Amino acid sequence: MLRNLFSIYGADVQSLAPGRPPTTATQHLSDGVAVVALTGTLSRDGRHGGTSTDQIRAELRTLADNPSVRKIILSVNSPGGASAGSAALHDEVVATAKQKPIIAFVEDLAASAAYFAIAGATKIVASRAALVGAIGTYAVIEDVSGMAANPGVKVHVIKAGEFKGAGVPGTAFSDSQQAEMQRVVNDINSQFLAAVREGRKLTASQLKVVSDGRIWIAADAKRFGLIDEIGTFESALASPTSSSIANQARRGTDVQADFYQRLEAQQKQRGETFVRSWRRGGVCSK
Fold it and tell me: Residue 101 burial by CB count (10 A; 0-12/13-18/19+): exposed, middle or buried?
């Protein structure tokens, strides 16, 4: 069985209770500030106990056109969600940020699709205990053909098209089907990576370090350039409305560059250590 594609950390949309209607996410504060909540698992319709990306997009458009709103706070606490709708929400955040500042505040968690959504914000602030990142995409394939075979059930798929019907319960998932699904996952993930690189002004080597699916505590996320500031909701509210300050900050410092270099060196050393151990074990023919 092939589940929907996910760009998610720590939750599965299909495991959550369905049928819960989405709620209004916007709260208007004084002094022209609007707060939009991005919480729980993200999906297009929001009926899995989380947030509707379609609804957030509509609310951002409304706020962008509202002259009484001078700044938008995205209050984020989400493990990510379905890939469907994530790119569109990111694009909406980018478009809105061109009209007025969007400050993303991460209270506890901004992972995977949630980080995809806010990567193009004017500024990202996170609490010191917040977790940020999980940059990556995956799909889940459940091959239950062996289970069907036990009671003597054989499933036949009559199809037109080599890859049509891939993942039908009870059928084996072939190597060519798996390769094709990997291609789709890679294509979706490339959009995620492009959004993070452009939104956070990262180099290719910097992006490579942070895009292996790991989650980062706020201090490390700041060193990587994934967030601009460690602070509180109140400090996010007080953030300057000019995007130039955030854009200058996220270009990085010598300390940040040194941090990347040290991590890349560690990754390279681990790879070399593995190769040496592999050869010592006699597996290598050379």
Answer: buried
